[in-house]
Batch of 4 targets.
Target 1
Amino acid sequence: MGRQVCIASAGFSEHASKRSDVSMPELVSEAIEDCLKRVPSVDIKDIDAYVNGNMPAFEGSNIPELWMTDWMGARNKPLMRVTTGGTTGGSVAISGYYSVAAGLPGVDTVLAIAFEQQSQGDTSVGLASTAYGEISVMNSLGIPYDQLTLLFSAGAAIGIASYQATNYMRKSKITEEDLARVVVQNRHNAAKTWWAHLKMPNLTIEEVLDTPYISYPLRYGMVCPASDGACAMLFTTEEKAKDMSDIPVYVNGVGSIATETALIGFNGSGSGQLDLSEQLGAQKTSELAFRQAGVSFPRKEIDYAEVYSPFPNQELMWVEQLGLFEENTAPNMYETGVTALNGELPVNCSGGVNSTNAIGASAMERPAVAALQIMGEASNQVPKTVHTALGHGWGGYVNLVTMMVMADEPTRKLR
C-alpha cells in the first residue's frame, strides 16, 4: 500500500447548466481556490505534482490540461491526465492517492482536479464517437450491422438506467413513489449545498410524479442535470497533513474494478450485463476497499456515504450493493429517514449526482464531500460526528466502479 496518505482539503466551483461567465481554465481555478483557502499554510508553489481529468470529447476540447497549465499552477511540474468515463473523477482521486502513496522522490503533495464544462460541447455527440468505434471493432469481429443496431438502441444513459430500474423494481417490489422519494431528498439536500446545481427546497413527491416519462419508469423530474463545474482535492503525507489541517482525513482503502467492457458483455458473455441491477463490480470494489480499510461491518462502521447516482433507482441499488444495507431494504431506509441528514446513515447530503452532474468531476465530488464531512466542513454538514465515510463512482456501460474509504484515524475500529 506504500506510505499513509491523507486528504488535507477539497474544494468546488459553483455548478450550473451554463457557466458562461467563465472559461474552462477559470472554472477549474475556482475549485482550486476553494480547496486551498481551507489550508492557508499551503501555497500553489507547495504543490509537487498534479492529476487532472475530464471527458474532453464531450466538450470538443483537446488536451485542456496543457492549455490550462498556468491556471492550475502546474507549469514545469509533473502532470498526469486521466479519463475513464463517468468514473473519471474517482479515477483522478485514486490516482492522486497513489501518486503520494508511491513515495516518488519529491512528490509529497498532489493536487487532483476534475471538471466538466458540458455547455461548451455536446455530450450526445461525444458518446456517439465512442459508439462508432465499438461498431467498427465489433463488425470486424463478425457481428452484423443489423444486430449492432439493436444493441445500440438502449438509449444511452437513460436507457441503461431504465433497464436497471425495472429489474430492481421487480426484485424489490417498489413503486415510482419510492424513486421519487429519493429525488426529493437529494434536491432538498442540494438546496443547502452552496455549489450544487438543482436546488429545490420545496419539491414534493407528487410534483416529481407529475412530470412525463423519458423511459419508463424514469420521469423527467427524476433525472440528473447536465452541469458545468469542477472539483479539487489535496492529497499529501500523514506528516504534512497534520500541519495543514486540524482534522486530516486518512485514505484507508481504495478500489477500482471493471467487469465486462461495454457491449461485448451485453452481447452474451458476462454476469455483469445479464442483470443490469446486479452490479457485481460494485460488490467487488467495495470488498476490496473495505478490506484495505479494515472495515468488517459497513452497516455499523460507515457513518456517511456519497454514492454516484444520476438516477434514483441507482442510489437504492448502490447503497445495497456496496454493503450498507441488506438487499431490497434501501427503499424502507429512505422512507423511515435512516439516510436523511440527521439519520443513522446519511447518504448524499450534497444532493448527489441526481442534483449536480459535471460528468468529469462527479465521481471526485463524492469522496471530496465525504472527506469534508469527516473534517466537519461540508456545506450541508450532518449533525453527528463522522468518523468513517466513503465516496463511490460509477461509469462506462454500468461496468466501471471506483470507491474510496476515508476516516479520521489510520486504522478502523468497530464503534
Target 2
Amino acid sequence: MKRSVYSLVLMDDVIKAVDEQAYRLGTSRSNLINQILAERLSCVTPEMRMREIFGSVEDIIGSVMQIQQQRSAALLTMRTALEYKYRPTISYKVELERVPEKYLGTLRVQIRTQSEQLTDLFNSFFLYRIKFERGQFAAIGAEYPGCELSSGSFARRLLCGDGLSEEQTGEAIGEYITDLNRAVKTFFAEPSGFGKYAPELEKEYSAMLRRYII
C-alpha cells in the first residue's frame, strides 16, 4: 500500500494523547494517526485487514488454546500444554505481512523446554511433518512454501490464498494450526505409537488441503 509524506499541524495535547496510545499499542505516531483517519473515513488499512484475519483465527482456536495479548497488530501468539511429563508448553506465533504478495506471513512453532529428549522429539515430529506436507503439495501440483527447523523451533511461510476474503484467510490459518496442533499433541501423547494414528491424521490434513492451500 503506497505511502506519502505530509505535514500536519496538531495541538500539543492531541500529539501527547496520540503518542501515549501509540506506545500502548506498540506502533508509531504516524501509523496510529493513519489508522484513526482511515477508520473515520472508512478506508481499509493493513491493520484492519490483519485484525479481521486474526479475529477469524481466534474464533476457531480460542477455545482450545490460550491467546496472548500482543502489542503489534501483525502478531498473534497462542499457547497450549502437551500431554507429556511435566506438561511442557508449546507456542504458535503467526506474523502477517503488512502488504502480502506471495506469502501472507510466517507461522512459528516453539517448545519451551531444557530437556534434550523433548527437543529431539519435537524435531523428529517436524521432520516427519515437513516430509509429509511436501508430498501433499507435490500431489496437487503446488509449491511447498519455505520452512526452517532448528532446535525446538519450526517456522513455515503461509501462502496467500487466491480469492480468499480476510475472514476465509483467518479460517484457513485457524484450521491449519488446529490440524497441526492435533498432530503434535497426538505425537507427544504416545511417540512410540504415533504410527497407528498417523493415517487418520494425514487423511484429515488432505481433506483440509482440498479446501485451503496456505
Target 3
Amino acid sequence: MSFEFHNLRSGTATASSDDQFAQAVLDGLSREPKRLPSWLIFDDRGSEIFTEITQLAGYHPAQCEIEIFQTHKQSITNMLAKEAFRVIELGAGDGGKTQILLEYFIQSQLTFDYVPIDISEGAIKNLVAFLELRFLQSTMSVTGLAADYFDGLRVIKEQPHLRNIVLFLGSTIGNMELPAAELFVRQLRESLNDGDYLMIGFDLMKHPKTLYAAYNDSTGVFERFNLHLLDVLNRKLGANFVKNQYVQQGHYNPRTHAVERHIYSTREQVVFIEALGKEFAFRAWEPMQTEHSYKYTPSEIEGLAEKSGYRIVKHLFDTQAYFVDSIWEVKK
C-alpha cells in the first residue's frame, strides 16, 4: 500500500488563491456591517486551533459525529463492502474522526483508497505521515492533496475505476448561506460519477442555549481561533491590526437560523492594509462578522438533496438527534 502527498496549490494556483483572499477581504471590509468569511482563518495555525475546538467536550458537532461513526460504522462498511472504493474527505484537517471509519474498514479487510483534501499543506502532510506510521501494513492506500476542493476532485475524476464516497463532515456546509450550499452540492454532483456517495454532516436546530454553550467555551479556544484571523490578515496582506484591541462573541440569530460570531473593536481605530492600499475605520464596539453556522431541520436537508440531484440513502443520527450525517447517492 502506498502513502503519498501532492501539493496542487503551487505556482499560478497559489497566485489565484492569494488574489481571491485579498478580494474577499476588500469586499468584506467594504460592507456595512463588515463581514469576512471564516475560510480566511484556515492557514496551518488556524487549522491547528480548529482541531483544538473539535476536541472540546462542549463542542457537540464533533462529539456527536464521533458517536455516529462509532455506532454506525458497521452499516457504513456494509454499504461499501461490495467493491473496491475510494474515500475522499474534503477539509480533512487532522482526519481524527474519519480514522474511526478507516480503522474499521481495515479491520474488515476492505481494500480501499483514502484521499484527504485540505487547503492547509501542513495539515495534509502531517496526516499522511501519521497514517503511514500507523497503517503502513494495511489494506489502505493514502494520497493526500493540498488543494482547493474542486481542484482535488478534478484530479481524482481522471481515475474513475473506483466508486467514491465523499465525506464533507463537521457541519462545514453550515458555514454557507443556503443558496451557496445548494450551488456547492450541485457542483459536487457534477464532479462525481453516477452511483457515487456523498456523506454530509449537518448540525440540527436545537435549544439556543445549547448552541450558545457550544460556541462560547470558557477556555477561550474559540476566541483564539477567531482572533487568529487578525494575525492572518497582518501576515498575508500587511495589515496593522492590534489583536488585543478586539474581542469576540458568538450568538444564535433567530432571523438567520444560524450561530453568528463577531469580532468587536474595543475602541475607535483605523486599520491600514498595505496589500489593498486602503484604510478601514472601526467605530468603538463595531462588530465584524467572522462566522455563520446555519442550523438545519431534517426537511431542509431532504429538500437540499432532492433539488440537487441526489437520492437519500440514509440519515445517521446521534442519540440526542443534535446532529446527522446524511448519506446521498449521485443520480445522473
Target 4
Amino acid sequence: MKNNLHKLTLKKALAQIQSGETTAKKIYADCFSQIEAGNKDLNVFLSTNSPTSMKQFENPETTLQNCPIAVKDNICIENEVTTAASTVLEDYKPAYSATLIDNLKLHGGAVIGKTNLDAWAHGSSTETSQFGRTLNPRNPKYLPGGSSGGSAAAVAADMCTAAIGTETAGSIRQPASWCGVVGLKPTYGRVSRYGVIAMASSTDSPGPITKTVEDAAIMLACLAGHDSKDGTTTNQAVPDYVSLLQKSISGLKIGIMYQDIPGLKIANPYVLAAAKVLESLGAKVELVNALDPKYAVSVYTIVQRAEVSSNLARFDGIRFGNDRSYFGDEARRRILLGTHTLRKGYAEKYYQVAQKTRTLFIEDFSRLFSSYDVLISPTSPSFAEPIGASEDSVMFGELADMLLEPSSIAGLPGISVPCFHDEKTNLYLGLNIMAPAWREDLVLQVAHAYEINTDWNSWRKDNND
C-alpha cells in the first residue's frame, strides 16, 4: 500500500531519509507502485527496475541517498537495454554506462527505469517513439512534449523523485513546460555527453527534470563535471548550486525577449506577469530586442539534420541489432535532408551559411548579456498540444521549440519553471530563464526566487518547501 512518499520532492525525500522519518527503500517502492498503477495508460517508462532488483539501498551515505531517478532511454547504462525509442535498438545492451550515469550512481541515485522519448530524440511530442506515444499526466488528452516527454511525464506523475533528460533544441525545457515541472538545460559542456546516443553533437546537453528548482540544483551538482572521455566538457569547478540559490536577485538586470514576435498572444501576458514578480523582488526588468527566433529555426533544422545524418550512419545492423530498415519515418526524413545538405555544392549554400548565422546568434546573446544578467521569455508559444498534433506536421518540433532554439544553438544554460496553470484543462505554461555560458547559478537563483514567491508549482504546498 502506498504511503504518498512518491509525492515528495527530492529535497523533502532526502530530509526525511536523513531524519529517519522514512527510508529510500520505502520511497522507491511507493514510486514503483505509482509506475505500476499508471504506466499502462500513460506509457511513460520503456523499462523499469523493481525494488527487489535494487542493491543500492545498502549504502545510504551519499548525496542522493538512493532516491529513485528516472533516466531518458537514449542514455546508456551498462548491460541494460537502451533503445532511444527506436526498434533498431530494441535489444541493444551497451557494454558501458554514460559518464552521467556513473556520476549519478556515485552520488547515490537509484535508477528506477528508462523513460520514453521521441525516437532518437527526433521531435517535441514523444509521438515519434516506435514504442507508442506518451500521454501528459496533467491531462491525458494532451501530449507531454519532447523529446524528453517520458522524463517530464515521470516527474509530473510522481513516478520518481527526479529525472534526467537531454536537450538539443528544447527537449528538456519544452516538455517541462507542458507537464508543469522544472527543466534545466545546462551550458553545453557542463554535463558529459559520453554514453548519450548522439543526435546533434554540437548542441546535445543532458540535464535534470525535477519537481522544484532546488531539486534541479541538487541534481545538476551530481551530474556536472569534467570528463576526459568528452573533450567538450569544461574544466571549471562545479559550483555549490544549492547554497547559491539563497542569493537575492535584487539589483539584477533582466531582459524580456520576444514580446514583438507574432503568435505569442497566449504566453506573453504570463511572462509579463512573471516579470512584475521579479521586479517586486528588486530586479530591474526591461523589454529587449533580439534576433528573430525564426532564423534559429532554420539554423537548427539545417545543422541538426546534417549532424543526424552523420551520427545515425553508424547504426547499420551489424553492431546494434536490427538493420536500417527499422528506422522510423522521422529518422529517415532527417537522414535524407542532412545528407542532401552536406552534398558538395549544397554544404556551402546551406550548412556553412547556417553556421555563420549561428555565430550571429552567439554574438547577439553576447551583446544582450553585456547589459543584462539574465533574459526571460515564454518557454513554449502555447500550452500542450492535443494527441496527434504532430502527426501531420514535419516541422512540429522546430516550431514548438522556436523560443528555445536560439539559446540552444548558442550553447547557453536555461531553465523552465511553471508560470501559469489553467484550471479548466489542468495544463501549464513555463517561464524560460537564460544566462551567459557557465552561469547556471544565475538561472537557478532567479528561477528559485520566482518559484518561492508564486503559487504555480504544484508540489510546494504539499511538501511545505
